[in-house]
Amino acid sequence: MVPELTIRKTSTGEFNRKGLPQGCLHVEIGQKVSQEDSQEDKAETLLICKVFSQGVLHASQRLKDYLGFVDPQSKFQPATNTLSEIFLVNFISFCMEKGAEELIVTSKMTRQQSCLFGVDWIWTLSGADKQIKLQIAVHALQLAELFCAEGGPAEEEEDCCRVAALADECFQNMSQFGKLAEFCRLVGQDCVGLFVAFGVPGKPKDIRGVLLDGIAKEEQKCRLSGRNALRQFVTGTDSTLPTKDMLENCLGTNSGLREVGNVYTNFV
């Protein structure tokens, strides 16, 4: 039975979710991206972007050994959650080695939370003053899931997650894509959604990131569902953007969060 989950905004801007283990998730809501234009703030932001992009590259290189694996007996393949955990272990370890674990905090969701909110983990980027600069809510998947026939494994997983969604009416009857968008909306303007795809047809060891805003535009442009829009975007978009550039654009201090255009981020 799924425990009751509620979301409310407190005076300190902290999400409270009753029924979940304390400390398993920490998200700040309602804080605006800092507009301070000091050299110190810019230097700190550039440092965060540098360590983050290096950490993503390091974790992706470690994960590549497991991508594209084909069981000769066709009995199994690594689950998306397993790939996510390998990626995150290496990313977090890298941040710790660089002494940046307080500037870049990674919060892994439980399976139940992931099913409910459409979020697998959250990256929270903060300054030394603990002021949040940006939050990135990530939904991870293997792109092969998007090519499954109707009623395939991807949809079976979503069917299981609908049970968890009953715990909060905000997320009922939503696809994983809709849940991620709603979660980011509830957290506030300093939160962006990011899809991380492990493996691409023809390039099984690629790891690509696609911002939620790009998928939303693809939905409107081509009148596709979130799942089909993501598939179309990843396979039909040739323009790439380095992770560091993507992050610097999202952390733009002159006009808040900026659009990065119709591009994807190649993690490797």
What features would you highlight for this structure?
39% helix; alpha+beta; 6-stranded mixed β-sheet; disordered N terminus; 8 helices; 6 strands; single chain; 268 residues
Describe this structure in words.
This is Rab15 effector protein. The protein has one domain (39-266). It is globular. It contains eight helices and six strands; from the N terminus they run H-H-E-H-E-E-H-H-E-E-H-H-H-E. A hairpin with a 5-residue loop joins strand 2 (121-126) and strand 3 (132-142). The protein is 39% helix and 16% strand. The protein starts with 38 loop residues before the first helix and ends with a strand. Helix 3 crosses helix 4. Strands 1-2-3-4-5-6 form a six-stranded mixed β-sheet, sandwiched between helices.
Number of helices: 8
In percent, how much strand structure appears in the residues?
15-25%
Describe the global form: globular
Stretches with pLDDT under 50, minimum 5 residues: 1-24, 149-156
Number of domains: 1
In round numbers, the mean pLDDT is 77
End-to-end distance: 40 Å
Structural class: alpha+beta
Profile the largest sheet: 6 strands, mixed
Helical fraction equals 25-40%
For the CA atoms, what is the radius of gyration? 18 Å
Strand count: 6
Helix/strand order, N-terminal first: HHEHEEHHEEHHHE
Q: Could you give the order of strands across the largest sheet?
A: 1-2-3-4-5-6
